[in-house]
Amino acid sequence: MKKILATLLVSAALSPMASAIAADTAMTTQPVAATEITDSEIIEKLFKGSYKFWQQARNDNGSYEDKLYFEHGSNRGSIANSGMGLIALAIGHEMGWEPEAEELALVTLRMLAGKGPDISVPRNPSNTYIHFYNTQNGEQIGVDWSPIDSAIMLCGAMFIKRYFPGNKEIAALVDELYETTDLTQFIADINRGQIYLVQDNDGNNMPPKTKAFNEYMIVAALANQQAIDFKKGKQGRDARRFWNHWYETPKNLPVSYYNDIPVLSEGRTWFTSKFNFLFNHYLLNGFSASEEYQQASANAARADYSWFQSQGFEGMKEFEWGSGAGSCPDGYCVDRIVHEGIETKNPHMMISPTIIAGFIPHSERAKDDLIAMYRDDSQKAVYELPEGGTVLWRYSKTQPEWRSNAIEGVDFSTMLFGLASLPEYLGTEFFNAYNDYSNPEPANYTRPSKATLLAAE
């Protein structure tokens, strides 16, 4: 795995920002006392730490680990993390932290396209990517040939293509990935709003399906665009109809009410985990640039906060909310809020700071809640990364002694993205500019007037 400190020290000669982040990496493994630093310094520390996570999860061959373990290494890669990692490279480059981001992106894209010198990521006969694979030899792990993970990978690839518009090799590799990874084949039932969840080793769709609304909006969006770009016959026509019927406007989607707050969901009697809103927001221009979808995200954030605060849980603090996914005392949990009288879907009362951060563009309280969480005397959310860097991660209210042994990359991604969207850093327009994949014009992005490169701590 990449040795972050050494790399950053070498990069220091090229970039003052790299020097700043290297100095931060060399800090003690214990977080600075919360009373000794300002609010802005806390946010800077968390932003830097969130980027360091992606540096430490990356391997020299361009692959990204599924999880970053605190006590030992891993060789299980995630195809979705390749996409999130490519977006992280764009953020790191824009902040001045990753001067070699363009070449690093090429290493990852060559691997994904099967043109790298070390490993290739497995694809089945229908060109769908495997969810998990061995990062040392490229062998598949499990049989989850996944449309959503393939779609997240494609989003990251197209994001980095727009970010480095002058690189012809990046453009050619991304175009090849987009043209060969056919997502129109996963439209299952237009009338019911269903998309296939998985294929088998032979490229056949398996019975499990999911229903709008959730993160599979990403699959639907890319399938719709592929149908426009490549026609695709009946399969393409179905993809166009599916998008127009369900996702063209949130008015077409099911709504479940938490008290008087309308929340998009897969059904009218229950709620979906909030990462679904955030993945769609940061990866899809049709979501992030839509006033209707932005209002839907604001509603989701408000409902989520209200649910946590209304549970009557002893010791619940005002900054504690966020129903997301990731490590939990049972291993891995996907948490959801529920209607009163319904069995809980968050039995460990997990708090997800990555969800709070992801909702920064939609919630006025999100930034302050992250600061309060860092300052809290319990320090339950504060983790130190193996090679340096401070982050906030999930913790349990019912089992306060529990500590996670790893951080899942795809679930952690919205921490980096949310902090990057702050106006003092890159702003929401950074994502709107570079997730507009079908726009033939170059991205027109200008840093917010308040933005400043982070100085050394």
Automatic annotation (TrEMBL):
Alphabetic keyword roster: Signal
Annotated signal sequence range: 1-22
Keyword set includes Signal: yes
Superkingdom of origin organism: Bacteria
Protein name in the entry: Glycoamylase-like domain-containing protein
Source organism phylogeny: Bacteria, Pseudomonadati, Pseudomonadota, Gammaproteobacteria, Oceanospirillales
